[in-house]
Amino acid sequence: MKDTLKHQGLRQKLVATIKAKGITDDKVIAAIGKIPRHLFMDSGFLDHAYQDKAFPIAADQTISQPFTVAFQTELLQIKPGDKILEIGTGSGYQTAVLCELGAKVYSIERQNELYKKTSKFLPKLGYRPKKLIFGDGYIGLDEEAPFDGVIVTAGAPFVPKALLGQLKVGGRLVIPVGTDVQTMMLYIRKGPKEFEQHEHGEFRFVPLLEDKN
Ligand code: SAH
Known about the structure:
The protein has helices at residues 5-20, 26-34, 66-76, 93-100, 112-124, 161-165, and strands at 55-56, 62-63, 83-87, 104-109, 131-134, 147-152, 167-177, 182-189, 195-203. By secondary structure, the protein is α/β, with parallel strands linked by helices. Helix 6 links the parallel strand 6 (147-152) and strand 7.
């Protein structure tokens, strides 16, 4: 597992690209500049690792586009020590970004192959999420709730009620909602039953699958 000067140079270009696309949070930018994204991808794609694009990983899934990762993370407004639930661990790249920001990360993945691979891989890079879970993101993680933030990294056909219910008052849920195209939604919990809702543009994700699929 190598991170060379060439990789570091390409990463700085990627940082310039996401800034040009509108990312402003310095801590998020620093995390993207630090994390060796090429190590999260299968070797055939190494040359592409620092393009601002999504790429295939195992189990027909994708590692999200760096701009999208940065955009979703920025919306969460993480402070060190925040408890964050991620749905869709995938390659672990977004998980690593959350760890870099000092969050206590809980992440759920429904593909056993990815769950196993990423569970082994993240500690090798020095990233230690609180818990990686092989399970169904639609039900969230009640035993660890409430969370300061919940981030969904797959396209959800609807907003799972459980995820809203597991937010602290003041907590934020960032979730792309839709089937073919998704609208990036931000929900902020204002009270036991009050949620503020904001739309943040269109994105394309692989689908958040229900158990039977
Ligand atoms: N954050 C990841 C994104 C991976 S793509 C990365 O950057 O690598 C979305 C991930 O969500 C896939 O790994 C997919 O297997 C997972 N997923 C899909 N439906 C899910 C569900 N119901 N519960 C948990 N994970 C799910």
